[in-house]
Amino acid sequence: MTVASILSTKGREVVSERGATLLSDVCKTLTQHKIGAIVITDDDGHIQGIISERDVVKAIGVSGASALMQPVSSVMTRSVETCTDKDSINVVMAKMTAGRFRHVPVVADGKVAGLISIGDVVKHKIAQVEMEAEQMRSYITMA
Ligand code: AMP
Question: Per-residue pLDDT tens for 17-73?
Fold first, then answer.
């Protein structure tokens, strides 16, 4: 199963913000969209960083409530692991496990073109296991 197959059902919409956005506004966006991370891009859609709820908690833990008035560029992760449409879900899972993060943006032509979350990976893994179990059941019944 590939990244492209997940995106064909999930869609390619990615919630993104600019680096100058205040952390307080990032919190609003995370809440409004019920998501755990936002990709930070420039005006052309090139990835500049990623901010997740973990970064927000860490910033508040370090600086207190005043952290919310900082621009997201000061707390986001700049070195972002990405994937492409052609990558398999196992490759994306390996990136998440090795990097200990739960979001991997999809890049096409240097621009953000989707996002795979750990929820997407788990959903597709469960569907795959159920399909294999069903195949096994019908094989046994036929025998
Ligand atoms: P998450 O588990 O996605 O909430 O993220 C945990 C930490 O990893 C946070 O510091 C994020 O900024 C960072 N992070 C999330 N996704 C990525 C990614 N694809 N590449 C690099 N760092 C990431």
Answer: 999 999 999 999 999 999 999 999 999 999 999 999 999 999 999 999 999 999 999
Model pLDDT, residue 85: 97
Record the tokens describing residue 51, joined without a space.
Answer: 């901010």
State the total domains in the chain: 1
Residue of 54, 62, 81 best suited for mutating to test ligand 1, as the one with most atoms within 8 Å of CB: 54
E strand intervals along the chain? 16-17, 37-41, 47-52, 103-108, 111-117
What's the CATH number where 114 sits?
Answer: 3.10.580.10
